[in-house]
Design brief:
93 residues
């Protein structure tokens, strides 16, 4: 085995590693991020949901008033029908 050949090969590989390091350093300075329009739309929707009230008072106010007055009554039959309808929907999934 010739030592000169080994030295020449080592020099070739050494210069390639330096070139890779330089290219990596150049690309690190130009990193950018792009958010798609769908990502922007999702962010807008998330912000709108976060700003909205958790309880829709226009729907709950009449029920609360009926409970406070003692005039709110729930039919047991209609409740059972709705409960069974929900159960059937879950079973079909």
């Amino acid at each position: 085995m010739r030592i000169e050949a080994y030295t020449q090969i080592q020099q070739i590989y050494g210069t390639k590693n330096k070139a890779r390091t330089q290219n990596t350093a150049k690309s690190a300075n130009s990193d950018r991020i792009q958010i798609s329009s769908i990502g922007k739309d999702i962010q807008i929707a998330k912000n709108a949901v976060a700003a909205a009230d958790d309880i829709r008072s226009e729907l709950t106010a009449p029920i609360k008033a009926g409970i406070a007055n003692g005039t709110y009554h729930v039919s047991g039959e209609s409740f059972a029908e709705k409960l069974m309808k929900q159960y059937e929907e879950i079973e079909n999934l």
